[in-house]
Amino acid sequence: MPDQTRHISFPYDAEKATQAVLWLLYKHGRAINRLKLVKLLFYADREHLSRYGRPIVGGHYVTMQHGPVSSELLNHINKASADTEAAFVNEDLRVLARGPVDEDKLSESDIEVLNQIDNKYGRYDRFVLRDLTHELQAWKKNYPNPEEDTSYALPYEDFFLDLEDDGILEIIREHQEIMDFSN
Asked: 39 is in which domain, residue-wise?
């Protein structure tokens, strides 16, 4: 019988995503490779979820040939071009800051985790980060054929496959069940 459990979900927060992108861009001299950027934000969302019960950016995560990514975040970055009013621009596989970062739009825990993830992974190039995500059970489980160039849904629950879960996943599930019931 198929699993009837409803997966936990988090809406994409475009404003917070913009500020998280800008925060990382400013940490890296106002420009960063797009693949590296989305990998750092994946790790930040995963870490924040495991500690505080919510991601920073959110959205629908998918596994792709180059690893996990928030689908909405990737679309947001890909659509940021020089002819838009975006706070950053996607140009030749690099993302460049055009506007200032507004740290007031990020919580203390958001900044704490972004800083921790950047300190841990920020020195790696995009391909090392991609390869590190390919070692995660979340990617292996949800991307069955690494030779394919497609995407598959990545449930937030699977972020915990490589993490110690001290019960926060159950708390997240209970909270979402209560929210679903009250809506």
From this structure: 14-182
**E strand or H helix at 176, and its extent?**
helix 168-182
Task: Report pLDDT digits (tens) over 28-39.
Answer: 999 999 999 999
What digits encode the pLDDT tens for the residues 74-126? 999 999 887 778 899 999 899 999 999 999 999 999 999 999 999 999 999 99
Check residue 100 and report its DSSP letter: -
What are the distances in angstroms from CA 180 to CA 8, 9, 90?
10, 11, 36
Domain count, the chain: 1
Give domain status of residue 19, yes or no.
yes
What is this structure's pTM? 0.91
Please tell me the distance from the alpha carbon of residue 142 to that of residue 145, in angstroms, as a whole number.
Answer: 9
Residue 97 phi/psi, 5-degree rounding, is -75, 135
Q: What is the largest CA-CA distance in the chain?
A: 52
